[in-house]
TrEMBL record:
Record Pfam families: Response_reg
SUPFAM superfamilies: CheY-like, TPR-like
Keyword Phosphoprotein (UniProt): yes
Modified positions (4-aspartylphosphate) in chain numbering: 57
Protein name (Swiss-Prot/TrEMBL): Response regulator
Domain annotation Response regulatory: ranges: 7-127
Record's keyword annotation contains Phosphoprotein: yes
Naturally occurring in which organism (per UniProt): Salinimonas profundi
Length: 547
């Protein structure tokens, strides 16, 4: 391998070792060696020029982007050529660190200390492999999955030294294309081959995608006999157990995967999904906190992760049995909300994000949790008006908490468009956000069904002139939607009809009329509701004036 025509980038925060590495590369023949002390400066350099070899230390300073976050961003942002290799080096040989690094797919991972001969050999080997598989990497870089699959098949037909590496790439491409049966056909000939662990893991994941959950679990158990530290095997077991509705076992398996390899964002996303599905909201909060922490310095940084972190604390508060726990998590959510408003790292994530709107939604949810339903409705109303004025389409980041308050208040009709929007944008929303919203819709479905039943029956009876029976149905509907404007107006209409023409007043009906009148006066009303309320105002005043 000739180094003279290769551009090399070295990223190392310790200057003495940085200069040592530069000297080693130059002694190998490299003439163009660029050095940087941080990942951020390295990214800036890669935006300006392309390198053939990138060598980065894993640890690049506290609170700074590290080496495996750098390799991930370079690949995802296409700031590195498909022909370039990335070598990660570290003095840290702890298993979680090594697994976290390998999961980012550097071309090689070298543990310090190492000799010049070892460095040269590992770089050469990584380079040769990448060049052999370059047609595949180029197609992947161009987002041409079909071409990448064809390139893999051509290399496999040649039966090269990189056969298994190519088959693994092909398997992943088939998964991306939902060609799970084709992946199964590729992998099954190796099913009983000894020592080919990647095949067993890939086969188990293929079984998972095919919803052959028992087969996936059995295959992973075989993997764990050989290697009890396979975090991916525990990942697959967790999702398979969840597929079998074995929630406790699923939680235990994903917990073990996190313990083995705690630096994987997708792993925590899966953990959040599993935890929410099994109503373990403390575990879901811990997963959301990890997602936010892990994503902040990566190509996956997103304001939605911060919103989910805030939301997860309110989820714990909502489902807490003890008032002390509820209050603590509510206060933590409000504290982090205020900190985020003044944190430049949060503010810069999304220029379209409106902290005032999100705060209104969160305050609406806190008010609902405290039983202050009218306060919740006012805050929700203001937030939804602001959203409608600012955005053409409802933003995903505000949806789960808005939806939560709507369901709590019984504003089912307003909630439905948001549920439909989340279904439409499922991929962009993120699975853990969808799981949160779907969980709410499942819990509220029965309430909504009962509300619709009683409200519709009440409307039918009212149209038949059976006002007493209609009132009973509307009262039942209000139990499921205590501050729903529509049913409150329906109740008022019934009361007016029941008291119309009477010389003496019914104290119970007058008292109910007074309550509903005050409630509607105190809450914000949409135009059609306001018009209907104003049309009833003369009759209401007349009824309340009776002695």
């Amino acid at each position: 391998m000739k180094y003279a025509d290769k551009r090399v980038l070295i990223v190392e925060d310790q200057r003495p070792f940085l200069m040592l590495l530069k000297g080693l590369l130059q002694s190998m023949g490299a003439t163009e060696v660029v050095t940087h002390l941080s990942a951020e400066k390295a990214l800036t350099a890669c935006r300006k020029e392309k390198f053939d070899i990138v060598i980065a230390d894993l640890h690049l300073g506290a609170e700074q982007k590290n080496g495996f976050e750098l390799v991930e961003e370079l690949r995802l942002s296409r700031l590195i050529k498909p022909s370039a290799i990335f070598v990660l080096i570290s003095a840290d040989s702890a298993r979680p660190v090594v697994l976290g690094s390998i999961e980012r797919r550097p071309d090689d991972y070298i543990v310090k200390p190492f000799s010049q001969a070892q460095l040269k050999s590992r770089i050469s080997r990584a380079w040769q492999k990448r060049q052999a598989l370059l047609p595949v990497y180029r197609a992947i870089h161009d987002d041409d999955t079909k071409k990448a699959i064809s390139a893999c098949q051509e290399i496999i037909a040649l039966n090269t030294n990189y056969l298994h590496s190519t088959e693994l790439l092909l398997t992943e491409l088939l998964w991306q294309s939902n060609l799970y049966s084709d992946a199964l056909t590729l992998l099954e000939p190796y099913k009983d081959a000894a020592g080919v662990q990647w095949v067993q893991v890939a086969l188990a994941r293929t079984y998972l995608y095919l919803e052959r959950f028992e087969d996936a679990i059995l295959m992973c158990q075989a993997v764990l006999v050989q290697n009890r530290f396979s975090a991916e095997a525990f990942d697959i077991i967790a999702q398979a157990r969840q597929g079998l509705s074995e929630g406790e076992e699923a939680l235990a398996a994903i917990g073990q995967a996190i313990k083995l390899s705690p630096y994987s964002l997708p792993r925590y996303v899966a953990a959040c999904d599993i935890a929410r599905s099994n109503d373990d909201f403390i575990f879901a909060h811990e997963a959301c906190a990890a997602i936010w922490d892990l994503s902040r310095r990566t190509a996956h940084q997103d304001i939605a992760h911060w919103c989910s972190f805030i939301r997860s604390m309110l989820d714990v508060a909502e489902h807490a049995d003890e008032k002390r726990v509820k209050n603590r998590y509510q206060q933590d959510a409000l504290l982090h909300l205020q900190r985020g408003r003044h944190d430049e790292r949060v503010v810069r994530l999304n220029p379209e994000f409106d902290f005032d709107i999100f705060e209104q939604v969160i305050m609406a949810r806190v008010a609902a949790l405290d039983g202050k339903l009218l306060d919740a409705k006012r805050a929700l109303f203001m937030s939804q008006q602001d959203i409608e004025a600012k955005y053409e389409e409802y933003p995903v980041m505000y949806a789960p908490d808005s939806l939560n308050v709507m369901m709590e208040l019984g504003e089912f009709e307003e909630a439905q468009p948001i549920i439909s929007m989340l279904d439409k944008h499922a991929e962009a929303a993120g699975k853990h956000i969808l799981t949160s919203a779907q969980g709410m819709s499942k819990r509220s479905r029965q309430r909504h069904k009962q509300f619709l039943k009683f409200n519709r029956q009440g409307i039918g009876l009212y149209q038949e002139g059976k006002f007493e029976q209609a009132k009973e149905q509307f009262c039942l509907a209000q139990e499921y939607a205590p501050v729903n404007t529509g049913v409150a107006l329906n109740l008022l209409q019934c009361i007016i009809k029941l008291t119309h023409g009477r010389k003496t007043s019914n104290e119970e009906l007058v008292s109910e009329c007074r309550r509903l009148n005050k409630m509607l006066h105190d809450m914000p009303l949409k135009a059609q509701h306001k018009e209907k309320f104003e049309a009833l105002s003369e009759d209401i005043d007349a009824l309340l004036a009776k002695k």
